[in-house]
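Kindly inspect both lines:
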Amino acid sequence: MKRRFWLTTFLLISGWQPISRTIQPVALDSAILRLVDGTQAICIEQIFSYAQNLIMLLNGAKSLDIAQKLALVYDFPLPFPLTAYSSGPDKFGLIPFKNTYKTIQELIEIEKTMGEMDAALKESFKYLKIDFEKLSIEYLEDLQKGKQLMMPLIKNWSILRNREDSILLEWSQIENNEKETLTKRLTKFTVSGRLIEDLLLFLSDLVQNCPKSHRSYREALKKTK
């Protein structure tokens, strides 16, 4: 059974944009994508939900309530209560670090400052890998099922975005043990942050290249108001 994507309403409220205003979308060269656009093969709701979850893991949740719900839905291992651990104004991290919670972005900066991971960062990184896997497993499994479509798309995307060194591209070309290989490649916070950013950019470009599916999703949202 698919995990419930509970953030759909929040996505509408928060207004997550499928691409940054400062980054122009790229035109993915895929006749197959144009063929499946507007069909059930492209689920914009699922893409938006997964992207928003990744954004919260990377940058923090906007409220303690949302952070708690995300942790509950995905059964994140939390060593101490997730209360009042704000990383800043409207930012609640989900990765345990020492006696508080941090966002991945904050831990990336700590890692860069230190030059290498100490015992505390290594312990936090274990939680990151667990959280990322729990957030991603269903969506990545769906990508694997559609690998015949996704592999050339990701390759084309990596060239257009100059991301040919992306772990996302490497992962898309693996025939077996994709999960294990991906887990092994995530060795530190900076590497994981880059993968999440690549995933978000790819998903954003994917949405922009599926105008029929995107339009249908927007129309469906209007009917729920």
Q: What stands out?
A: The mean pLDDT is 81. The longest helix spans residues 119-145.
